[in-house]
Design goal:
The chain is mainly beta. The protein contains four helices and 33 strands. Helix 2 packs across helix 4. The longest helix is centred in the middle third of the chain and has 26 residues.
Length: about 500
């Protein structure tokens, strides 16, 4: 109440002074500002405001307020004392417009604002007055936030088309999404925006593209902060060789997509036969033969990989988050674990520095639902990152296939940016094939003898098998071993054990 009364008395004195002197206020005080100001969410910013020509503002009245809220300023400097609006206490203060500023003594009355939020976006008024007059200027604050790298996912469509979707979240304000191939801009079938309670914006879009194409999806607020995901799609012909000329930065997962599309071809064999009865019988037979040849190639690749079977042992170092017994792995349901990280990961032995090696992991157990949370792969790391938010990516020596934490119908690999792999049925047994010298790591669904996905990577030094049973999943993970001929092994096959290769 005292502040309110003082304000009106002061305004009355200013009015009388102005009328008696009849001098334009611009000749008494001139306020300059710099606008607009753009700052990232959560950072601190300074709204520049100063007197011209420079003069001391220590004996003047300075107030910063929003919109027309003159009587409820963010900060009020009067009689060399500072008062603040309650919601800005600890966040708003005088700042320096630049490193050479002399502060209040030199007429710099800029306002510093800490921990900028979306609600802080808008117009601010800098008002300075004295017994001789007053002036003010307006500064516009724009708040921005850069979201996540776009996530690409795909499902098969009819007539050699792929439904490719792109999504990204955590942006402010609304970002622009752009599709393109290597020659043209592409028009999406759908473009939708959403907003979460924090005010941040998400975007989702999809389009149909040929099954042999190269497509990019970019999301950003401007050309300076755009994030992009790019993928090359191609259904490989029978007995296809390695893909060359890969997009820089995507070597890790281009082959993954090829394998995924080959699997889709197998899943759609029956569907295509039924739907193409209107075509000549010879054309149907030719198409079906191609698809069956692709499946045959995958089956032959798995049989070849199994020739290099090696028995893996778990490297038990007393991890407090895991239960390990007879090659079976479970998490201990620790209450502090909120996401799957390397805290529940473990290496296998032996390690490899050359050669070809294959092992199998069971994700299904009698009486228990097939595991929904898991990682399977290899690592060059000797020490795992123990921080809960530490990255386990290909850049620091990890290559693995995992269940998707967000989607039950997808798998993913630890690439950046991520591309989701469609899943029609969850494998009970995953086969892992490491071709060290060829720089390949492939994952197989052992039950239907199909490729799930593959990495292409330059392995160096010792590479070890890598496992993680996830969190909050009652299903165990078991490392399967082959036994001597005549004994029944874990996979139900009677095959001679393969000696570990080095």
């Amino acid at each position: 109440m005292g502040l309110h009364v003082m304000t009106h008395v002061h305004l009355l004195l200013l009015l009388c002074s102005s009328l008696s002197s009849a001098a334009p206020v611009s000749k008494s005080l001139v306020v300059l500002v710099r606008s607009p100001v753009s700052e990232q969410l959560g950072r601190e910013t300074t709204l520049p405001c100063w007197l011209n020509p420079p003069q001391s503002a220590e004996a003047l009245e300075v107030r910063w307020y929003r919109n027309d809220h003159f009587d409820t300023p963010i900060i009020l400097y009067q009689n060399k004392k500072m008062a603040q609006e309650s919601s800005y206490v600890g966040r708003a203060s005088f700042g320096l417009k630049d490193a050479a500023s002399g502060g209040l003594a030199a007429g710099d009355v800029s306002m510093k604002l800490l921990n900028v939020g979306i609600e802080d976006e808008g117009d601010y008024t800098c008002y300075v007055s004295s017994d001789q007059g007053y002036d003010r200027g307006s500064v516009t604050l724009k708040v921005t936030e850069t979201g996540n790298t776009p996530l690409l996912s795909m499902v098969g469509a009819e007539e050699n088309l792929v439904n490719l979707s792109c999504e990204s979240e955590g942006w402010y304000p609304r970002p622009k999404l752009h599709w393109a191939d290597h020659k043209h801009n592409l028009t999406p079938k759908s473009l939708e925006y959403g907003k979460v309670s924090s005010g941040l914006v998400s975007v989702h879009s999809w389009l149909l593209v040929p099954s042999s194409s190269e497509v990019s999806c970019s999301v950003g607020l401007s050309d300076m902060d755009t994030k992009e995901a790019r993928v090359r799609l191609e259904i490989p012909p029978p007995a296809a060789k390695k893909v060359s000329g890969l997009v820089p930065g995507l070597v890790v997962f281009i082959r993954i997509l090829l394998a995924a599309l080959a699997l889709l071809g197998w899943l759609y064999i029956k569907k295509r036969v039924l739907r193409k009865k209107d075509k000549p019988e010879s054309n149907q037979a030719e198409e079906n033969m191609k698809l069956l040849q692709e499946v045959s190639v995958e089956k032959a690749a798995l049989e070849e990989a199994k020739k290099h079977y090696v028995n893996i042992e778990l490297e038990d170092k007393g991890n407090p988050y895991l239960t390990i017994k007879d090659g079976m792995l479970r998490d201990k349901k620790h209450p502090d674990l909120k996401a799957v990280t390397c805290l529940t990961a473990i290496r296998g032995t032996p390690g490899f520095t050359s050669g070809q090696h294959y092992w199998e992991v069971s994700l299904g157990h009698p009486g228990v639902e097939v595991k929904q949370s898991w990682w399977v792969g290899v690592t060059m790391a000797t020490d795992f990152p123990l921080q809960a938010d530490a990255l386990s990516s290909t850049s620091n020596g990890f290559w693995f296939l995992s269940s998707s934490p967000d989607r039950a119908d997808s798998f993913q690999l630890n690439t950046e940016p991520k591309v989701l792999l469609p899943v029609r049925s969850r494998p009970r047994t995953v086969g892992v094939y490491l071709n060290y010298d060829g720089g390949e790591l492939s994952f197989y669904n052992v039950e239907d003898e199909s490729v799930i996905g593959s990495f292409t990577a330059p392995f160096q030094g010792d590479v070890f098998p890598f496992f993680n049973p996830g969190i909050g999943d009652p299903g165990p993970m078991k490392i399967l071993k082959r036994t001597e001929q005549g004994e029944c092994n874990d996979t139900g096959n009677n095959e001679r054990a393969q000696e570990p290769e080095s």
